[in-house]
Specification:
This protein is of the alpha/beta class. Helices cover 23% and strands 21% of the residues. The strands form two sheets. The chain has a six-stranded parallel beta sheet. It binds pyrazine-2-carboxylic acid and zinc ion (ZN).
Length: 210
Amino acid sequence: MKALILVDIQNDFLPGGALAVPEGDQVIPVANALSAHFDLVVATQDHHPAHHGSFAANHPDRELYEVVDLNGLEQVLWPVHCVQGTPGGDFAADLNLESVHQFVPKGTDSGIDSYSGFFDNGQKKSTGLDDYLRSKDVDELYIMGLAADFCVKFTALDAAALGYRTHVIVDGTRGVNLTPDATEKAFEEMEGAGIKLVRSEALLARVGQA
Ligand code: VGL
Ligand code: ZN
């Protein structure tokens, strides 16, 4: 069984959002076109409390995008984003949520970030996504969304490590690019881990839609 994983397609990651991913809005039509063709669709949601330790605003002596130690793990300090109950944390208005079967919140613990949709960054707590997918007999994943060099990458790396046949939809993701080649490097790292990079047109062609 195959599943489509839509990673963090939320307002704060779109152009104009608090942690805007360049061209982040361009993944929305890709998600909508593909979700109609998958029997199972999961959407992860970055879902932080306002006092989250990944927010630069909660470290007054630190700079935005500085890397700090957060409870023993390296942590990039981000702008305040995807706070629970705020419009920035809502899914993109144009994202079709009707075909989403399961929502997976992450990053809810203020003391640790969670880039992956499966585990927090310390691999300590599971979000329940793996159990959910196994309960549905999923063995093959197609992953897309935001951002390519953070949450998509870590979700895909965990998926591959957990034994799923893992694909990342390259035209369905965009990167933050704190350094100019970060997305390119993320794709290389994913390929090195056995993850297949695919394009949505190729997937849609297989079901006769393109
Ligand atoms: C993300 C940084 C902080 C992401 C989430 O969704 O890629 N990046 N929180
Ligand atoms: Zn976040």
